[in-house]
Amino acid sequence: MEGPRSGRTTAAGELSGQSNGQCVEVADLRNGVAVRDSKDKSGPALAFDAQGWCSFINSLKSN
After folding, report:
1. Which of 32, 6, 33, 10 is nearest to 23 (CA)?
2. DSSP label at 47?
3. Are 26 and 3 contacting, i.e. CB atoms less than 8 angstroms apart?
4. What ranges do the domains of the chain cover?
5. DSSP structure string for 13-41
6. Residue 62: is its pLDDT beyond 80?
7. Going by C-beta distance under 8 Å and a sequence separation of 6 or more, which residues neighbour residue 47?
8. How far is CA 34 from CA 1, 14, 21, 54, in A?
């Protein structure tokens, strides 16, 4: 998976405003999306290709 695009979009979010510090950042990459813990910027990130990201989001919506 390639690195971030120039002018990438990064969003930080929390679930229902009741996150208790459980926030993530999402980065739009050339070939997919990366997600990391917003409190641990040097820590690991999950990287998804476009199809994997859609599958991941759809599985969250169904639960």
Report:
1. 10
2. E
3. no
4. 10-62
5. E-STT--TT--EEEEEETTEEEEEETT-T
6. yes
7. 1, 29, 32, 33, 34
8. 10, 16, 19, 13
Largest CA distance in the chain: 34
Please, what is the Cα angle at 25 between 21 and 29, to 5 degrees?
Answer: 170
Give the pair of three-digit tokens for residue 61. Answer: 């919506």
Beta bridge partners of 45: 36
23-57 pLDDT per residue, tens: 888 888 888 999 998 888 899 999 999 999 999 99
Give the pLDDT band (50/70/90) at residue 16: very low
Cβ atoms within 10 Å of 40's Cβ, excluding its own: 9
Assigned token pair, 53: 């990201």
Assess contact for 61 and 53: CB atoms under 8 A: no
